[in-house]
Design brief:
With 483 residues, this protein is α/β, with parallel strands linked by helices. The chain folds into three domains: 6-106 and 172-214, no CATH class; 111-167, Alpha-Beta Plaits, CATH 3.30.70.20; 226-475, Fe-only Hydrogenase (Larger Subunit), Chain L, domain 3 (3-Layer(aba) Sandwich), CATH 3.40.950. The protein has 20 helices and 15 strands. The strands form six sheets. It has a four-stranded parallel beta sheet with strand order 10-9-12-13, with helices on both faces. Strands 11-15-14 form a three-stranded parallel beta sheet. The chain starts with 5 loop residues before the first helix and ends in an 8-residue tail after the last helix.
């Protein structure tokens, strides 16, 4: 996540302390002490009612950092026990998200609300503006019937005193598929049957109550056991760290990995295969297809928009192709995808060639613990250089631009981009699917995050800055050549 706020700093501090504990002489004991080290006796209470509440929140953050579901925590279980379980764990938990209930504010229900600023004016503009009869005048003040209110906000616009406001719940408002609801006690819970793992709840909660379950301990275990651990670098990683991609490869090897590959190699395979598929399907009479690289979009179709399946590309993702290549060349290797977002953890679970996923935040924490400065590392070249088009997959428009490059002169592709999944763009997708045509284009790229993967929930650099760094990098790369 590229927001520079205190909640992010807390998460980074916890991650670094977990990693330091792992490399210490007593992992379990040092993990147990993390909440006490961060909030020692007599320290100033910064965010909660008391030091004990802050320690409780920190304990839950550590549990998530160790890779476990916080919701299942028995408060009597010591953190040292979780540390031991993390060492013994054979594979990550299925659902990659968790809610830190102790950190959750338990926000009041979201609704349109009349404040005390209401003057009970004669014009009664708010009531007249409501098409659903949800506003009445009681005791000289406007009152909203929540059972009738449709949250259209017309009353907010109409009120001359700005007396009507929308009370928001950041995580619920950010979720494009309404996968977050309130429990009876008012705290948030995630419905994993409907969640598409877009990570917007993580980015939106100002209390940091929604967490990824980290797989960093699983990766570090394999490194210290001298396994061949190979990192796969997503195209959006360019610009996330100081230094270039070749210095980043060197830094990753210095951190303990055996080797690193660009996922952009897999993006080249996706580009070639998708261009061929597009030509065949359009020539056969189909009106449009949508690209298949975003794991959140795949989850959206799977859980909420199955009618879009006929328009979904059958071409595999860049991660699929590069992971398959690495596993074929190094059968005993442990393959780790370095990801900008949580959604790729779900994709990895369905891909037998990817063992673990860690994100940019976790990689940065590892670099900090190891005192590795990327820009000071020597350059380490890749065995195969990826194309300009494959390396551009991390930004909005990169996928359709790559495919269109191979279709130049064939007068087939009309690219169109849906830049981020939200309630409005999902409505747009539903309309396109219902009409069985897209007026804006026939090669439709759907990105879960605005700006592309550089806007993922676990990035460490502002998306615009990262996007500019990728543009500079692309200028130094060669065009794709279909084989």
């Amino acid at each position: 996540m590229n927001n520079n706020n205190q909640e992010i700093h807390l998460k980074k501090e916890v991650l670094e302390k977990i990693i330091r504990a792992f490399f210490s002489r007593d992992f379990k004991e040092n993990v147990r002490l993390i909440p006490f080290d961060m909030r020692p006796k007599g320290s100033k209470v910064l965010y909660r009612c008391c030091i004990y509440k802050e320690r409780a929140v920190l304990k839950d953050r550590v549990i998530a950092g160790l890779g476990f579901a916080i919701e299942d925590d028995d408060k009597a279980i010591d953190l040292s026990n979780y540390a031991q379980e993390a060492l013994e764990r054979k594979k990550p938990e299925e659902n990659p998200l968790a809610v830190v209930e102790a950190a959750c504010k338990g926000c009041v229900p979201r609704r349109i609300y009349v404040t005390d600023l209401c003057q009970g004016c004669v014009a009664n503009l708010c009531s007249k503006s409501c098409k659903f009869g949800a506003i009445s005048i009681i005791g000289g003040k406007s009152v909203i019937d929540s059972s009738k209110c449709k949250n259209c906000r017309m009353c907010i616009t109409a009120c001359p005193y700005n007396a009507i406001v929308k009370i928001t719940v950041p995580c619920e408002d950010a979720c494009p598929v309404d996968a977050i609801k309130k429990k009876e006690n008012g705290t948030a819970q995630i419905d994993y049957k409907t969640c598409i793992y877009c990570g917007k709840c993580i980015m939106s909660c100002p209390f940091g109550a929604v967490h990824e379950k980290s797989q960093i301990i699983d990766v570090l275990k394999n490194i210290i056991f001298c396994k061949r651990v190979i990192a796969l670098l997503a195209p959006s990683i360019v610009g996330q760290f100081t230094g270039n991609i070749y210095q980043l490869k060197s830094a990753i090897i210095k951190a303990g990995f055996s080797d690193a590959y660009e996922v952009a190699q897999g993006a080249d395979a996706t580009t070639i295969n998708e261009a061929r598929e597009f030509k065949e399907r359009i020539k056969s009479g189909e009106t449009f297809i949508t690209t298949s690289c975003c794991a959140s979009y795949y989850q959206l179709i799977k859980k909420h928009l199955p009618e879009a399946k006929p328009f979904f590309s059958n071409t595999n993702t860049p991660l699929y192709y590069i992971a398959k290549k690495v596993k074929s060349e190094h059968k005993d290797a442990v393959v780790v995808f370095i990801s900008p977002c949580v959604s790729k953890k779900k994709e990895a679970q369905e891909n037998g060639n990817v063992d673990y996923v860690i994100n940019y935040e976790e990689l940065m924490a590892l670099f900090n613990v190891k005192d590795i400065e990327v820009r000071e590392c020597k350059e380490e070249k890749f065995d195969i250089e990826s194309s300009r088009q494959g390396r551009g997959f991390g930004v909005t428009g990169g996928v359709v631009s790559a495919v269109s490059k191979l279709l130049e002169g064939k007068d087939l592709a009309r690219p169109y981009v849906i830049n981020g999944l939200n309630k409005e763009t999902i409505k747009q997708l539903k309309r396109i699917v219902k009409d069985k045509k897209c007026a804006e284009g026939n090669l439709v790229e759907v990105m879960g995050c605005e700006g592309g993967c550089v806007g993922g929930n676990a990035t460490v650099c502002a998306s615009k800055v990262a996007g500019e760094a990728i543009k500079v990098f692309l200028e130094k790369s060669e065009d794709i050549v279909e084989k």
